[in-house]
Amino acid sequence: MHDEFQQRAYELIEAGRYIHGQGWAPATSGNFSARLGDGRIAITVSGRHKGELSLDDIMLIDAEGRSLDGRKPSAETLLHTSLYRRYPGVGAVLHPHTPSATLLSRFFLDELVLENYELLKALPGIDTHEIRIVIPIFPNDQNISRLALKVDEYIELHGDIYGYVLAGHGFYTWGASVKDALRHVEALEFLFDLEIRLHGGGKP
Amino acid sequence: MHDEFQQRAYELIEAGRYIHGQGWAPATSGNFSARLGDGRIAITVSGRHKGELSLDDIMLIDAEGRSLDGRKPSAETLLHTSLYRRYPGVGAVLHPHTPSATLLSRFFLDELVLENYELLKALPGIDTHEIRIVIPIFPNDQNISRLALKVDEYIELHGDIYGYVLAGHGFYTWGASVKDALRHVEALEFLFDLEIRLHGGGKP
Amino acid sequence: MHDEFQQRAYELIEAGRYIHGQGWAPATSGNFSARLGDGRIAITVSGRHKGELSLDDIMLIDAEGRSLDGRKPSAETLLHTSLYRRYPGVGAVLHPHTPSATLLSRFFLDELVLENYELLKALPGIDTHEIRIVIPIFPNDQNISRLALKVDEYIELHGDIYGYVLAGHGFYTWGASVKDALRHVEALEFLFDLEIRLHGGGKP
Amino acid sequence: MHDEFQQRAYELIEAGRYIHGQGWAPATSGNFSARLGDGRIAITVSGRHKGELSLDDIMLIDAEGRSLDGRKPSAETLLHTSLYRRYPGVGAVLHPHTPSATLLSRFFLDELVLENYELLKALPGIDTHEIRIVIPIFPNDQNISRLALKVDEYIELHGDIYGYVLAGHGFYTWGASVKDALRHVEALEFLFDLEIRLHGGGKP
């Protein structure tokens, strides 16, 4: 029986298989979610191997991040729910833990500027390479409420963003569907890796 | 029923699976085509995941790039048709979006010279490593007609080429068949990557 | 019939498939073990392809490292048994032979400090990135008794560690189960690779 | 019906699948052979995709390199036959075309010294990391007879080697069986890659 939860869950399971296969969710890191039509959110249970997820590894939370099935939500749940709150059109949030994103804060201070890449057209609303976008880099923080607030304030001040990096931790991006969000993950990681290669040289 | 369109389409689907698997067509980038005996061209529909193509993701256009099945052709269609026009022996054109090709223009100005590599023998008509070939690098351009013209004028002026790079965008290469074109993709990308690494663009 | 030995053996076989697939056990290098409830240890036979293990490639030894099935134990067996002796809670020991761990001693003297990485939370007992852990690097030594003693003395002096590197040889880590140990392998290798890249050992 | 030729051929097919999967035989490059009990040699037909070999892609030659089945032997056949002539114990010769081996001659002049690596124990007759071996690097040459002679003279002068690199072209190694030779390929490529990383840095 394929209800909406199962459909979203299977999309997250497949996304996890791809993301882990790329080396982007090592050692159970990373977390992925998708919003259902009624506002409930399917999200990966904390601590599970993201490349070997099963239905049991996907739980339900409400729009405030509270568990709807008795299980303990991930600590990072608020980073997901605050994005769903801000962006009614967002249907999925993906948080991979990639080498590039983990390294970025060693080469860039508090933002990465991406410009002049054809692949920027993979991001929503962009139809030319002749554009300049900013990916903010926030310091990591175990206090997730504080971190979610920081992200929210940044967007209030600077306008909409396509994703953000958490220093030494990975990045968050989102889309209308799991498929779109995964496309954004691919595009951003591809560009993060190139920028590291362009700016990380010069070391003995 | 395996008519010619289906055969070419399946070759493109397999090529896409390989190319995406290598990380050479991220986030729905890239496009691939093959020419049929009667001059019609099978080409990937824009915006599809190049590693998960199905028959529905391959459309038909005529030699001028006009859609033959009601669907909207890719913006880059003219880059394919102008190659088929110039080279009667070409049966397939592949445009991957690789990290190396995207980076090349940061290290080389308007051309990359490849010489002294055994792998140059994978390109048509070359039977020794003691040869020097030039891969032009064109600035990216959203105006595809203008870009196609630029490529055409370059070839008029400089003679036949084996492929070309679009700065920050990837590269185009071709062959008598999808199989040959894919061999050229493999060879050029292998060499692009080495040249990037030799000139400072390795993974720090 | 799934007795305990078979269960542990299959976990080691799967771990080997993953580890070799990542390029972390080239040319039959590496070795993996798991402890049974009665203290006997299932361990990979020396010289077998670690990505293609079968039940025949897993042997039994006792807590002192003596063969229980007539076959010759790996030279490195004592590195496993001394960890099981020291840590009653450890159920598996994994020794991969990764590029990063092999290179580490060229960039770091006798220890690698890891701090400020979210992925440190994949290691037991760590729940914040704001922590500093030390991974000792021991010179390689064909005299395994001497090496096992050196590791043991280090732990006596410095306290518990999460794993250690053998210069030019790879690393050892462990966990309550094969699954946990594999998570630690993933986390440590991810971080070793980043640290190498930050200190000059990237792929030029 | 599994005669000796078929057995060796299937081993070569599997080796090719692995080698190409690693990116070590791009664009139909590379070639692999195995000797039969009666001295005939099974060798890959020139120009075939090394990751998709079938029985049809393996031909038979005699000890002098002459075709035994009407098909044209690879140009590089003499590099195989001269090794079989010199080393009666060698049962397989593998020539991968790896990025590392292709780059090596840009960083090292006419030899690469490997010492102090545990993985050297994967090579025949080595049981310690405390050893120093030399891998010669020969300039590439389309005149294979001349090249085979050069390799032979080097061995006459310097003694037995474990493999050799052809500048800008890849490397050759061998073993008692296809399995052993493949283990040597894995070990040498792993170490070539590390040496490139250690000596290729310092680029802006």
UniProtKB/TrEMBL annotation, chains A, B, C, D:
<dbReference type="GO" id="GO:0046570">
    <property type="term" value="F:methylthioribulose 1-phosphate dehydratase activity"/>
</dbReference>
<dbReference type="GO" id="GO:0008270">
    <property type="term" value="F:zinc ion binding"/>
</dbReference>
<comment type="pathway">
    <text>Amino-acid biosynthesis; L-methionine biosynthesis via salvage pathway; L-methionine from S-methyl-5-thio-alpha-D-ribose 1-phosphate: step 2/6.</text>
</comment>
<keyword id="KW-0028">Amino-acid biosynthesis</keyword>
<feature type="binding site">
    <location>
        <position position="97"/>
    </location>
    <ligand>
        <name>Zn(2+)</name>
    </ligand>
</feature>
<dbReference type="InterPro" id="IPR050197">
    <property type="entry name" value="Aldolase_class_II_sugar_metab"/>
</dbReference>
<dbReference type="GO" id="GO:0005829">
    <property type="term" value="C:cytosol"/>
</dbReference>
<keyword id="KW-0456">Lyase</keyword>
<comment type="similarity">
    <text>Belongs to the aldolase class II family. MtnB subfamily.</text>
</comment>
<dbReference type="GO" id="GO:0019509">
    <property type="term" value="P:L-methionine salvage from methylthioadenosine"/>
</dbReference>
<dbReference type="GO" id="GO:0019323">
    <property type="term" value="P:pentose catabolic process"/>
</dbReference>
<dbReference type="InterPro" id="IPR017714">
    <property type="entry name" value="MethylthioRu-1-P_deHdtase_MtnB"/>
</dbReference>
<comment type="function">
    <text>Catalyzes the dehydration of methylthioribulose-1-phosphate (MTRu-1-P) into 2,3-diketo-5-methylthiopentyl-1-phosphate (DK-MTP-1-P).</text>
</comment>
<keyword id="KW-0479">Metal-binding</keyword>
<keyword id="KW-0862">Zinc</keyword>
<dbReference type="InterPro" id="IPR036409">
    <property type="entry name" value="Aldolase_II/adducin_N_sf"/>
</dbReference>
<feature type="binding site">
    <location>
        <position position="95"/>
    </location>
    <ligand>
        <name>Zn(2+)</name>
    </ligand>
</feature>
<keyword id="KW-0486">Methionine biosynthesis</keyword>
<protein>
    <recommendedName>
        <fullName>Methylthioribulose-1-phosphate dehydratase</fullName>
        <ecNumber>4.2.1.109</ecNumber>
    </recommendedName>
</protein>
<feature type="domain" description="Class II aldolase/adducin N-terminal">
    <location>
        <begin position="10"/>
        <end position="196"/>
    </location>
</feature>
<dbReference type="GO" id="GO:0016832">
    <property type="term" value="F:aldehyde-lyase activity"/>
</dbReference>
<dbReference type="InterPro" id="IPR001303">
    <property type="entry name" value="Aldolase_II/adducin_N"/>
</dbReference>
<dbReference type="Pfam" id="PF00596">
    <property type="entry name" value="Aldolase_II"/>
</dbReference>
